[in-house]
Amino acid sequence: MEEPVSPKGAPSEPVSPKEAPSEPVSPKAAEPISPKVDPFDPFGLGSSFENSLPPLEPIGRHAFARILLHSADTDEHLEDVFIRHEDSVLALRQAVGIALSTPYVSISFEGAPLVDCLTLEEAGLVHESKVSVVIVQSVTLATSCMDNSIKLWDLETGVCHETLWGHADHVFTVAFSPSGSTIVTASADRTAKLWAFSSGECLAKLEGHTDWVNSAQFSPDELQVVTSSMDCTAMIWDAGTGDCIRTLPRGVNPIFCASFSPCGQYIITSSADRTASVWDANTGEKTRTLAGHSDIVLAVAFSANGKEIVTGSADCTAKIWHGRPVVVAAAARLSLDGIIHEVPPSPCNLVLKEHKDHVTGVVFSPDGKQVATSSMDRTAIIWNATTGERLRTLTGHKGVVTSVAFSPDGHFIITGSRDCTVKVWDAKVGKCLGTLEGHGAKVTCACFMPY
Fold it and tell me: Which CATH number fits domain 57-135: 2.40.50.320, 3.40.50.720, 3.30.1050.10, 3.10.20.90?
């Protein structure tokens, strides 16, 4: 290839740049740097960074979304936060808490509460989505009791600020709706009830079971409630009207616990037949059987992402099962009486063995990394959900520990007991932080209000 030819008359040496002026030009004085760093704009890019974010539909992978925070009460613009689209709603909630300088917030989008385990994209959030925020002034606990009452407590003060009466027999479970606006209870009076959190008014009475109602839980969208009963059925109810939508096919054994999956598509039940079962919430079809316990299964729960299930049994163990529920074609064989006789069982992935008596309650931590169990041996245990290693044992109750629950941020655990108390624990170190006293009888369940 030929060398480029210089233009005619061009000098062979490089041309010097234009001569600089005789007087040096002083550089522009540097502006002082403020020591305060905006955690949502750490490089100080300001509007240039914001303007570089296109309104993507949906948010492009690896891009940041600007989420507009508004007061749910006044619609006043509070703050903006930036977060990656692949991050979870839980990460968004934490970012909102940092931006508003409060650890307790409730967030919703287009009138529906946001589910922590979803990604922003799954929750329908895009760049410049408007999220409604409620700042929770104090953390509330709800407890149910064998004196037929439900109590609401302020965690910070330990004071019971309201007692709900209306059931005619023992109340076995209490649970909040995902937004915290409604409470559902299950009772030995064969009913479940819906209560308005703000006023304590009974909104609906769910009647249809013919024996004790052992549990009641809301669906993630708050539109439905599932109940389980000693009458061997689980029923799905319309939370707005109180009407029964569907009864899952009747078995021959009592059902102790029933709960929706985080996506709302499935329901899991635990039974006296020593198994847990997964059902399609829309069709009532049984999709999976979890068999492996050697005694009745008393408690069951999904992880926040819906990929794991934990069961607790009278055989003194808890078991963790992996894999999303999958509908198996023609898996269920039905007789003319509608009873499901056979569904292929699923294998157990991990066995948690340390308790000395029945496991009465099970729950995953919000991040899914830990499991907590309660037991008739008067203890609760925190486990590594991946390895099954026992991390901490919570001791101090003088009676059966009937229930266990993580706080929404995973920092605290509460346990209810037949010693008529509720204890609050530091989940990281297992230290008891306080005891709520004042129940008139044995505590059957304790739960945190979502925030």
Answer: 3.10.20.90
